[in-house]
Amino acid sequence: MMSLTIFEQLTTLLNNHHARYRVMEHPTAGRSEEVAKIRGTQLGQGAKGLVCHVKGNGIKQHVLAILPADKQADLSKLAIAIGGTRASLASPKEVDELTQCVFGAIPPFSFHPALKLVADPLLFERFDELAFNAGTLERSIILNTQDYQRIAQPELIHFIRQDDND
């Protein structure tokens, strides 16, 4: 099963870098709010991963964009920051090829050379731990936020949609 391979890659990477984390097995939950309740974490601790395709200005780049689960992405901001003119969500087929994960189970790490990892800085500002699905919808990792940033080293880009109340 491919998703177990991703889980094994994740735990090996975290162990090799002496990360502070724990694994949680749980029932499948389809929405970020549901899985946060099951995990006992705040919604904003969830590290939501969006696989996007940035195009324009000669750029054709797949991006794994990580943001807090209680926020929405502004894909045009993301595209401009990468150097493109537009961004869209990748197709389920592209998501599968680039992450080897089902939609909703994508961890905030890129194991594919063609998938650029970026994160919104807000991800690192509010919580000491981040929670994310670890390659399957039935398994989560709760990881020290500083350890995540140190190990994954995502490029920091502001791409959260600004609402009137932000």
From TrEMBL:
InterPro entries with a match to the protein in the record:
PROXY, YbaK/aa-tRNA-synt-asso_dom_sf, YbaK/aa-tRNA-synth-assoc-dom
Q: Any idea which GO molecular function terms this record carries?
A: aminoacyl-tRNA deacylase activity
Please list the residue ranges annotated as the YbaK/aminoacyl-tRNA synthetase-associated domain.
Answer: 26-150
Report which superkingdom the organism of origin falls in: Bacteria
Under SUPFAM superfamilies, the record lists: YbaK/ProRS associated domain
Q: What is this protein called?
A: YbaK/aminoacyl-tRNA synthetase-associated domain-containing protein
> What organism, scientifically named, is this protein from?
Proteus mirabilis (strain HI4320)
